[in-house]
Specification:
The chain has 256 residues and is α/β, with parallel strands linked by helices. The chain has one domain: TIM Barrel. The chain is 42% helix and 14% strand. The chain is built from 10 helices and 8 strands. Strand 6, helix 8 and strand 7 form a beta-alpha-beta unit. The termini are close together. The structure holds 1,3-dihydroxyacetonephosphate (13P). 1,3-dihydroxyacetonephosphate binds next to strand 8.
């Protein structure tokens, strides 16, 4: 029985009041059932405390969208993994394409964040993905190889299987155009083959999420693919009903 991870990346949407309403509505939608799927919400930093309070006695998991790699220090405006752990975060997204592009996060910084999160016992969600131009030039696997190798440079072998990979083709993020089933399956399968052979990890232990315009309409097809272990969902996670529909689909597929 496949165990999906369905994660909502709320990005820079929802103030603390809106976040609380969103998570309360989501809980009302999903809390009636026993769930096999792991459901994660990643609100903005300012909403973490408020959301943590609401979900503390539920199965919903809490994650952050970014962190610094140091525990503490003179790093104005930054938040450490330890601070996030203290709030109840179990997951931290790193290397999102929006951070790579707008905040010039490079592979070295991402690698340091990955190690810091793993050393603390939290689960990193490492985002990787190619641009449209790179895909058109048949560079997808080269780009992913580079992103994985650089991120994994300093991590312990035992930690490999703890890293959740989110394959997010940059051209699919926020565009309404998701990867096709063929593209998603082919790339997810390649990622698992690459990591399992290069780092001697068990292929079955690896978790690869798909992200990029996943919604209530296309989730069934995408989640039904052999090597898609869940979704990292942006826009569609901001509507509780839509997000709940995606979770329901994951539940149904996991029982097939
Ligand atoms: P959308 O689902 O809005 O395309 O965003 C995907 C994403 O970036 C999740 O991290």
């Amino acid at each position: 029985m496949k165990k999906f991870l369905i994660a909502g990346n709320w990005k820079m949407f929802t103030n603390v009041f809106e976040s609380k309403i969103l998570v309360e509505t989501l809980l009302a939608e999903i809390s009636k059932k026993e769930m096999h799927t792991t459901v994660l919400v990643c609100p903005p930093f300012t909403s973490l405390c408020g959301v943590a309070e609401i979900i503390k006695d539920t199965d919903l998991k809490l994650g952050a969208q970014n962190c610094h790699f140091e525990e503490k220090g003179a790093f104005t405006g930054e938040v450490s993994p330890q601070m996030l752990q203290f709030l109840g975060c179990e997951y931290i997204i790193i290397g999102h394409s929006e951070r790579r592009t707008h905040f010039k996060e490079d592979d070295e910084i991402i690698s340091k964040k990955l190690s810091a999160i793993l050393d603390l016992g939290l689960t990193p969600i490492l985002c990787i993905g190619e641009t449209f131009e790179q895909r058109m030039n048949n560079l997808t696997n080269d780009i992913l190889t580079n992103q994985i190798e650089k991120a994994f440079e300093n991590i312990k072998k035992a930690h490999i299987k703890k890293v959740v990979i989110a394959y997010e083709p940059v051209w699919a993020i926020g565009t309404g155009i998701s990867a096709t089933s063929e593209q998603a399956q082919e790339t997810h399968s390649w990622i698992k083959d690459f990591i399992s052979s290069k780092y001697e990890a068990n292929r079955e232990d690896l978790t690869v999420l798909y992200g990029g315009s996943m919604n209530d309409k296309n989730c069934h097809e995408l989640l039904s693919l052999a090597d898609v272990d869940g979704g990292l969902i942006g826009g569609a996670s901001l509507n509780a009903e839509t997000f709940a529909t995606i979770i329901e689909n994951a539940e149904k597929i996991s029982k097939i």
